[in-house]
Amino acid sequence: MMDHDFRMLIDGELTPGVSQFDVVNPATGKAFAQCPKADEALLERAVAAAKRAQPGWAATPVETRAALVNQLADALEARIGEFASLLTSEQGKPLDQAGYEIMGSVFTLRAFAAMRVEPKVLKDEGGNRVVEHRTPLGVVASITPWNFPVILLMNKLGPALVTGNCMVAKPAPTTPLTTLLFGEMAQAILPPGVLNIVCDQNELGALITGHPDIAKVAFTGSTATGKKVMASSAGTVKRVTLELGGNDAAIVLDDVDARQVAQKVYQGAMTNAGQICIAIKRAYVPAPMYDEFCDELAKLAKAAIVDDGSKQGTTIGPIQNQMQFDKVKALIDDARTRGTVLAGGDALDRPGYFMPPTIVRDLDDDAPLVREEQFGPVLPVLKYDDIDDVIARANGSDYGLGGTVWGKDLARATDVAMRIDSGTVWVNQHMAIDANIPFRGVKQSGLGAELGEAGLLEYTQAHIVNAIALEDA
Ligand code: NAD
């Protein structure tokens, strides 16, 4: 058991909970640390602290705020090994991937620290000057999931702080520790109340989304919870950004080398054990190369090193929690009765939540594994004959987050990408997420943007000042 005394950050103080709960290492299935738990009173203290701090923070020059965000980035970078190792312990991902998440978090903070929102002159004629200013919203709540607990917080914290908001952040109950460690570090850098962190076991969400002193909820998580966030935010007409689930299709065109693209599709589906909102969750392959493509994916899956993420060489770690593990297992068991499991399919006979990478072929589009978001290391591979038909099949989903098209003829592949109803479509690459490029879902994959200038503006409101000189009396 880790002996670190994790505490929440409330009003600049490292604060114990009213009780504690276990945090489980998914590679062992055993508790390895304790997380402090907030009750409603502690949440109220956190919101009140953020509300108190916010006017002073907004009045602090943007250059000073940005410098402090850069200091957070520097401090995180200096402790990258420690953060990565804690991330692997609580989340499960292999250590090298944990390192990428921390480094990506550093880049994200720096990217936002470099962004500015300038007032816009909308009209300046005949003595009438109309200027659109962008002012902060006030207190912003961040609610994050368990797949990328650190970077998904930074996507929200960076823009919130640079634009003059204060924050109450709530991590997911199964991955709270890296957020708490970040809070410890931030205590020495940020003024009290600017960032507050509270932990729960899914009890605080509704209190946060209904809170009258919270102006905005920046939420990343499942579509089901996102709908609750939106409904509950309506009571106070909160701003919401929702980064929700996806069921991204990879469309492989008929002019590619099956082996080359199978490798890329495999990575896109299996990184972080498939627990990525924008993971490839279904692959559509032309009939003439279907067998070869499936076999290549199966070969890659069988070669994976599925183990504790803290062990050197591990390529796939465990699924993050028991509930998700059970869900993925049920989807695979169902798929087995409808199609052919070419690789994987059986959980490892050891403690922890290990499912080897699983490739399933010959499923119909209405199989649950194809229709639902599996969020785990299992990929259904589907056959197609006609490009218009496969585009319709790819778009036949309530989700519209990402997606990929793979083709040698770049113009043709780009044309296909234009016809996919998603927030982002990558061509011949995957997961090219960049803090300077906005990311958003269409349909039930989300609302509003994260990252980029659009993501920055989501933390502001337009304030128009329309002035004219009084005529001489
Ligand atoms: P989840 O929806 O179960 O939980 C997300 C967060 O919401 C947690 O912090 C949880 O405690 C909190 N929560 C629970 N009930 C709440 C309520 N009533 N009100 C407010 N908050 C509440 O999601 P998860 O299982 O942790 O994460 C996986 C999901 O997240 C997947 O669907 C995945 O696709 C999605 N995701 C989306 C993106 C994106 O950018 N679009 C990124 C990562 C993950």
UniProtKB/TrEMBL annotation:
Keyword Oxidoreductase: yes
Database matches in Pfam families: Aldedh (PF00171)
Superkingdom of the organism of origin: Bacteria
Keywords: Oxidoreductase
Signal peptide range: none
Active site positions: E243
Stored InterPro entries: Ald_DH/histidinol_DH, Ald_DH_C, Ald_DH_CS_GLU, Ald_DH_N, Aldehyde_DH_dom, LUC3-like
Positions of the Aldehyde dehydrogenase domain: 19-464
Family (UniProt): Belongs to the aldehyde dehydrogenase family.
Name of the protein: Acyl-CoA reductase-like NAD-dependent aldehyde dehydrogenase
Lineage of origin: Bacteria, Pseudomonadati, Pseudomonadota, Alphaproteobacteria, Sphingomonadales
